[in-house]
Amino acid sequence: MNNFRAICIGIEDYLHYQPLNGSENSAQALYRYFFEEANIPSHQLLLLTDTSPSPGKRSTYPNRDNILQWINDSPIKVEYCWFFFQGYGINYQGEDYLLPIDSNLNTIPQTAIKVRSLFEKLQNSSQNLLIILDLQNPLKDGKLGQITLDLAQKKNISLIFSCRSHVYQSISAEKSIFITALTEALRYYSHHLTLHKLDAYFKERLNPSHQKDFPAIALPIIISPETIRHQPLLPASKKPILDNQENQALSFKIQQKPHQSPDQKPTSTLILPKIPSTPFKPQLSLNIPLTQTNIKPSSPAASLPSVSSTATTTPEPSKKSSLGKYWLWIGGILATTAVVWWMSLKIGQHLNAINYQKIQENQQILDYGKISLSVQQASQFNQAISYARQIQPHTALYQQAQVKINQWSQMILDIAQGRAIIGDFQGAIAAIKLVPPDNQQLYNLAQQSLKEWQTLSQQQHDNQVLIEAALSLIEPNQASSYNRAIRLLKHLEKKELGYHHAQKLIEQLSKNIYQLAQTRAQQGQLTLAIETIELVPNDTQVYSMAQEAKINWQQHLNRTSN
């Protein structure tokens, strides 16, 4: 599917708004479907969430600059493009906006993304564009959405729009039921999915009367030109579909190799059913001519010329003896020739039968390996490779088996890279270890990635331990404990995994210090309030407000002392 591109954005921990639980899981669920089930290469997919690792040097942190930079970075126009965004959105001065993680209600034009300009950018980079917006309005003023729907109609853009209520958001902490229904429909219809079928599926699956656990969910609104409402939303899959009837049949055994790996369970010997009887096919011969001729095998007696039993004259005895020996010699040669020809024919037929049987057996090995790929897991591709390796050199379909081994090795590498992109380094390591050494170039790349991911996995673990240690220092209503936790969190550098999470914790702890100082000031403990607010770090967002409050409290103390 080189003509497909997908951008999946899910934002949870906004810097200035309440968190949206489940947004990150929703974006990951759609990304995982495309990568693991639709078999789309990772370089055609983009995941932007609070914690998504960067596929290289560029950040995937979903702030405004990063989102716009990734959208603009599409020099080639693709045939199919999906854009998914789950997070906050608002209507501001007659325009709808999507809110990145760093957006601020006080500076919407500078920190938010205008839907109108977003639609234009995406439409310029795709022939068949589908935009999916699952939004919540922090203002709850009922204005969000109408401008977006009107724009989609005017620009002939396919749009799936959902605006969730606060009640629904507080209930769902795992992922959006809307995205759950979408991935269900994708699995059911695959590349036959259309907006018409999806609309019908949503009406049945998301019917409010059927949703006792989610009473506040609203059905998504689907906008699309009538001409493309019945067109597939995904490009047609080029993956061959095996005929199950052809795989009900082998009598030989496929031996499982004893090799085991962390991502693969041991299996026993597989005994497959018998090959269906197939008529002999001369075209599969080993260069032995089997063309039917008019020559038929005959016995030595039949090859001898007829000799009259009577003669008009009686030859001399010596002449009779010489003539008889001559004919016997000729007859022996002809008989031997006939026997050799007949044996050659039988041997050729036997070798052809053996060759055809071997082709059938090797083809069944390859086909059985393909059957195990119904689930897109690294261990399944590794298992298919073990089947293909049973086809020996200098036998039928050996070259085809080598091609498949290379393809399946590449798929294992792609799966591992996809796991690494979403931060699952343990899963990526388990998968990358299954890349076989058959293709030296792929194997070397896998080993290089393995070392890199092992380092990142250890770093991820160490940083998580550091974050947990910082949080363990916190004691409620003790500003000094908040400050100690902040100092520990600042040990995480910008390029390290967990940095953005640590920065959000620092901001939250700084707000806690500020609020604690405000409470003490309201209780008349101005001196203690000043001592508390001085603990707010100078590189946080509340620092300016803290300094302003400190000056006011100091001035009030000076007036009362005089």
Task: Describe the model.
This protein has 562 residues and is of the alpha/beta class. The chain is 49% helix and 10% strand. The termini are far apart.
Tags for this model:
562 residues, alpha/beta, 8-stranded mixed β-sheet, two-stranded antiparallel sheet
Write the layout of secondary structure elements.
Elements: E1 4-10, H1 23-37, E2 45-49, H2 64-72, E3 78-92, E4 95-99, H3 108-111, E5 113-114, H4 115-124, E6 126-136, H5 146-154, E7 158-163, H6 166-171, H7 177-189, H8 195-205, E8 221-223, E9 253-254, E10 270-271, H9 300-303, H10 317-371, H11 378-388, H12 398-421, H13 425-432, H14 440-472, H15 479-489, H16 499-522, H17 526-533, H18 543-561
Parallel strand pairs: 1-2, 1-3, 3-6, 6-7
Antiparallel strand pairs: 3-4, 4-5, 7-8, 9-10
Oligomer: single chain
The biggest beta sheet reads: 8 strands, mixed
Number of distinct beta strands: 10
The SSE order reads EHEHEEHEHEHEHHHEEEHHHHHHHHHH
How large is the count of helical segments? Answer: 18
Q: Gyration radius, to the nearest Å?
A: 38 Å
**What class would the helix/strand composition place it in?**
alpha/beta
| Termini separation | 78 Å
Percentage of residues assigned to helices: 40-55%
Shape, principal axes of CA atoms: elongated
Q: What amount of the residues lies in strands?
A: 5-15%
Low-pLDDT stretches: 166-173, 210-217, 239-315, 371-375
* Averaged pLDDT: 76
